């Protein structure tokens, strides 16, 4: 695996691959790689000749009171995992390389409306930071395909919308959520879950599954289902950010006759914010 820290070096190398007609896949990450990330690399390898993984902890997508400074940075371990995965290139620029003019005056890519709800409501500016950095990465790497995990469901929906709206020539691949044996969705932030909380956080996934089962059995009182789940989660001592039954594409509250739905949730533990979702396909 070859590692590049500069945009120029990375582009020059990828140009050689592109000239040979090789198909390039990108997996964008913020590092602290776990098995879920490696699954993204594996998926990218299936349909691309060359796989690039980027590691960049993007300050632009963190709010002022969020965890940018304590976000786990595990560069050497990440490199070993990528090497073992058969990833071809690692692109890991520093802040100055990605934002040479500073963050305050950085031009931004903004995807309106669907970024104001769910995670966007409690993390103002977050998705602006994501779409801005992802569009920069798309411009730098110019991948044919890019793989994103479905755990960050809203992130993928927003990136999908950006790609459509801006006619970006990249195919997005959605990777299934990779879970721990007890169902907890893998996330770099799971390291912040305390030992006491660990056995209880699976309540989020259980509640989302229970809502999905209720909907599949014909229930359509969505606000009631959401409220019941919130109460259940709160009894275990977690603060709930949201539990929401949405149209899977627009992420607007689901209508009774929507056939493709997603149940999303976010809860706060002592030191982390855990998100998860369950998709539902329903015949009308
Ligand atoms: O999902 C992530 O790790 C980040 O939001 C991404 C897509 C790498 C952009 O910084």
Give structural notes.
By secondary structure, the protein is α/β, with parallel strands linked by helices. It has 2 domains: 2-175, HUPs (Rossmann fold, 3-Layer(aba) Sandwich), CATH 3.40.50.620; 188-277, Pantoate--beta-alanine Ligase, Chain: A,domain 2 (2-Layer Sandwich), CATH 3.30.1300. It has 10 helices and 9 strands. The strands form 2 sheets. Strands 1-4-3-2-5-6 form a 6-stranded parallel beta sheet, with helices on both faces. It has a 3-stranded antiparallel beta sheet with strand order 7-8-9. The longest helix is centred in the middle third of the chain and has 16 residues, at 126-141. Pantoate is lined by residues 28-30, 58, 61, 130, 133-134, 152, 155.
Topology of this protein?
Elements: E1 2-4, H1 7-19, E2 24-29, H2 35-47, E3 50-55, H3 75-85, E4 89-91, H4 95-98, H5 118-122, H6 126-141, E5 145-149, H7 153-165, E6 171-175, H8 195-198, H9 203-216, H10 222-235, E7 239-247, E8 260-268, E9 273-281
Parallel strand pairs: 1-4, 2-3, 2-5, 3-4, 5-6
Antiparallel strand pairs: 7-8, 8-9
Helix pairs in contact: 6-7, 9-10
The structure holds pantoate (PAF).
Pantoate binds next to β2 and α6.
Largest β-sheet summary: 6 strands, parallel
By CATH, the topology of the largest domain is Rossmann fold
Mean pLDDT: 97
Give the tally of structural domains: 2
Q: How far do the termini sit from each other? A: 49 Å
Small molecules in complex: pantoate
| Helical proportion, percent range | 25-40%
User: Which residues sit in consecutive blocks of at least 5 with pLDDT less than 50?
Assistant: none
Helical element count? 10
Overall strand count:
9
Strand-residue fraction?
A: 15-25%
């Amino acid at each position: 695996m070859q590692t590049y820290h500069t945009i120029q070096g990375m582009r020059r190398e990828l140009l050689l691959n592109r000239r040979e007609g090789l198909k390039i896949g990108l997996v964008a990450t913020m590092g602290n790689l776990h098995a879920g990330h490696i699954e993204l690399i594996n998926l990218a390898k299936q349909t691309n000749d060359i796989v690039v993984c980027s590691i960049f902890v993007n300050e632009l997508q963190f709010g002022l009171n969020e965890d940018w400074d304590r976000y786990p940075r595990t560069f050497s371990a990440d490199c070993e995992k990528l090497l073992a995965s058969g990833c071809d290139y690692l692109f890991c620029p520093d802040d100055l390389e990605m934002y040479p003019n500073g963050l305050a005056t950085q031009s931004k890519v903004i995807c309106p409306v669907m970024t104001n709800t769910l995670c966007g409501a409690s993390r103002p500016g977050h998705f602006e930071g994501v779409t801005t950095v992802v569009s920069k990465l798309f411009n730098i790497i110019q991948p044919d395909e890019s793989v994103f995990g479905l755990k960050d469901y809203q992130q993928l929906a927003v990136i999908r919308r950006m790609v459509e709206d801006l006619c970006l020539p990249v195919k997005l691949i959605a990777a299934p959520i990779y879970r721990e044996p007890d169902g907890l969705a893998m996330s770099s932030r799971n390291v912040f879950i305390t030992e006491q909380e660990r056995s209880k956080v699976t309540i989020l996934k259980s509640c989302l599954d229970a809502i999905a089962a209720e909907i599949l059995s014909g229930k359509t009182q969505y606000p009631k289902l959401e409220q019941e789940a919130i109460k259940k989660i709160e009894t275990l001592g977690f603060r709930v950010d949201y539990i929401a039954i949405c149209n899977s594409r627009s992420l607007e509250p689901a209508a009774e006759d929507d056939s493709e739905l997603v149940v999303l949730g976010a809860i706060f533990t002592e030191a982390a914010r855990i998100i998860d979702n369950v998709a539902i396909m329903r015949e009308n």
